# Entry
Amino acid sequence: MSEINKVKQLLMKQFEMTDLGQLSYFLGIEFKETEAGVVMHQSKYAAHLLVKFQMSNCNPTATPTETGLLLSLNDEGELADATLYRQLVGSLRYLCNTRPGIAYSVGIISKFMKAPKIFHMMAAKRILRYVKGTIDYGVLLPFGQNESNQNLLGYIDSDWRRDKDDRKSIVAYVFMYGGALISRS
# Structure
């Protein structure tokens, strides 16, 4: 702590700066210190989304998408409100900062921004239903680990060309170091 305070004092001499104490809230992301580490979450933002998109009284669901859901640009169906759809998808994309578990589903619905159909909107609202049931989820940034726990783990998955429009594979990966998420896509 003494070294940190020295650095703060040096910075305060060079720049106009105020020490606001422990980080607790920044750009809609909340930080909560626990015994295991710091949890980075967006509970307030998620609750705001549920109200904004009139989903605060919805029934929660256990998964962000239905198993085996295949959406396509070419499927027939009535068009949804494109502005509302874009607002919802953009909001969900920001929520992905602390909720990597919804990133795949949000990526799928992001492909239909140009002309979203009602079933695309239903898939987006299903993600909100999942968020309602998991509103307090976040990312744990663990405190220092001993050297035996400093493992690099990587997980990768692909859907093997299930996209009905262009037959491309969708690939996702997660890398963790010492139990902390360091990279995801």
The longest strand covers residues 152-158. Helices lie at 2-14, 43-52, 82-95, 103-110, 118-133. DSSP finds five helices and seven strands in the chain.
